[in-house]
Specification:
The protein is of the alpha+beta class and 333 residues long. The chain has helices at 2-18, 24-36, 119-128, 202-210, 316-324, and strands at residues 40-51, 54-65, 69-76, 82-88, 91-96, 101-105, 133-137, 140-146, 155-163, 168-175, 180-191, 236-245, 248-256, 261-267, 275-278, 282-285, 290-293, 297-302, 305-310. A hairpin with a 3-residue loop joins β17 (290-293) and β18 (297-302).
Amino acid sequence: MKKILCILLLLVPLLLSGCGKLKDTDVIKEIKKKYEKSSGYQLKGELEITNNDEVYSYDVLVDYMKDSFYKVSFVNQANDFQQIILKNNDGVFLLTPSLNKSFKFQNNWPYSNSQIYLLDALIQDIDDDEELSFERKDDSFVLHTKVDYPNNRKLVKQTIIFDSDYNLKSVTVYDRNDVVCMSFIVSNIQYSPKYEESYFELDSIIEEKDNNKDEVKETSVIEDVVYPLLLPEGTKLVHEERVSKDDGERVLMTYDGEKSFLLVEETLDVFHDFMVIPSTGEPFQLMDTIGVMTDNSLSWSSGNIEYYLVSDVMSQDELIEVAQSIVGINSFK
């Protein structure tokens, strides 16, 4: 009897020490269960994009309805410039309401790469990483995973934080030198909000735009040509030409060298009727705007100017580096 009592006394601390402990697999199961039981979600938060000492901040609103209906609104805090990524049965759209236009894509966004502001994409990152690490800090669960951004290979890992109720709190994305490149802080999350399918239709956003007085001021001339601050080694500007177009002008700059490219800057076209422009590629988050990325080009609008960067010899990463040295120099006023 004494021996049994001694054994029990020895076991009690061990049993107690295991009580209340959650393994990473348990936490992941609970996070996924909460998501899978819902009919969708709405996320509100702040997205910050960092490039050296420059920080660009967005108010982000994510609406998601199963299956595959997305409406993600980005509002640049510096100038209230809004863009929307929409996915419905008709395809993927990048809308700029104030310009009365949208690009339409036929691709598998958002499943083609990681997405810092989409809960389902973050869960996919967690599932895909067999080497993810997990820790518990205070009342939060912290997961460290790899990321997959094929168009921006400098982004390699992220830290995802959930609260004790398994709600997303924040995401931070780093490069290989542990430098923060993006962060997303969640201010509110709601599971299973009530959506009508019409909420994700293009017409509903056009109607919202018609009731909104937000407009971008058109200009007829390019007062200040913006040159890249970063060029590939041995590449230089060899020709610059300014030409007229309907209600505006265009500047064409040819850069020659081992990494040659063409940069076009032109005054904005604000359409009187809403225009949908078919496009290859996919939406791409730059610093102060969302552009369109293809295999060999990158286009975007910023500072009342439209930019088009194209090269037959540069990689997407190289195109991004040049573009990032241009964006933010001007901003929408």
